[in-house]
Amino acid sequence: APWCGHCKNLKPEWVKAAAVGSKQLNNGVIAAVDATKEAALSDRFKVKGFPTIKYFKDGEFAFDTPNLRDSKKVIEFMRDPKEPPPAPPPEPAWADVPSEVVHLSEDNFKSQLRSKRHALVMFYAPWCGHCKNLKPEWVKAAAVGSKQLNNGVIAAVDATKEAALSDRFKVKGFPTIKYFKDGEFAFDTPNLRDSKKVIEFMRDPKEPPPAPPPEPAWADVPSEVVHLSEDNFKSQLRSKRHALVMFYAPW
């Protein structure tokens, strides 16, 4: 896709490989398809992301070749095309891996949280890198908590499967950690990132101080920068011969 950053990075390597291949590969071709213009081709060959690299033999699709990211590797492959080894099996769902973490769903949410006075719940997405980093700490905390916390539970919700729960508790990002008392939501606890802090918190749950006020909009901070809008864009730019405009996003 023309807008794809990884595709843009790969393009010069593809061009180099094609230049070498045109001289050294008597029976091979280095090719490209703009998937934004050739949607039917992309659909036919089940292209789901960009760039996707596919090897064809005698005009028929043979296999995907995901790891060709520089011209040398492309030429090496084309001299001796071999199918890569199969991808490793997918990681099992967290809920299917034995641990002391209580995995919550719409069916057991109320009953589990009401069974203990204190509950710390991590809303996560399986693909989320920060969630993956936090999971082993959550497992450690749950193992300690099962022995030391008589009236507390360490729990988790797969937000990709339990969208209704996530919506109900206004989960906007992952991981989101929420504290419940007597089965009712009390407050968010954003800074619990290791097992020791989790256990310390559960021994004496306290609401964190309020977040600092949001940063003021740039246009509201006095400076010599001229802030443009639809209303003043033409008039301001026509008032001077030269204008340098930064289009930005506050985040």
Q: What this model shows, in words?
A:
With 251 residues, the chain is α/β, with parallel strands linked by helices. The chain has two domains: 5-79, 3-Layer(aba) Sandwich (Glutaredoxin); 94-203, Glutaredoxin (3-Layer(aba) Sandwich). It has helices spanning 5-24, 39-44, 71-79, 109-114, 129-148, 163-168, 195-203, 233-238; strands spanning 54-57, 60-64, 102-103, 118-124, 152-158, 176-181, 184-188. β4 (118-124), α5 (129-148) and β5 form a beta-alpha-beta unit. The protein is flat and about 75 Å long. The model has no long low-confidence stretch (mean pLDDT 94). The two termini are 26 Å apart. The strands form two sheets. The chain has a five-stranded mixed beta sheet with strand order 3-5-4-6-7. The chain has a two-stranded antiparallel sheet with strand order 1-2. The longest helix has 20 residues, at 5-24. InterPro entries: PDI, PDI_a_PDIR, Thioredoxin-like_sf, Thioredoxin_CS, Thioredoxin_domain. Belongs to the protein disulfide isomerase family.
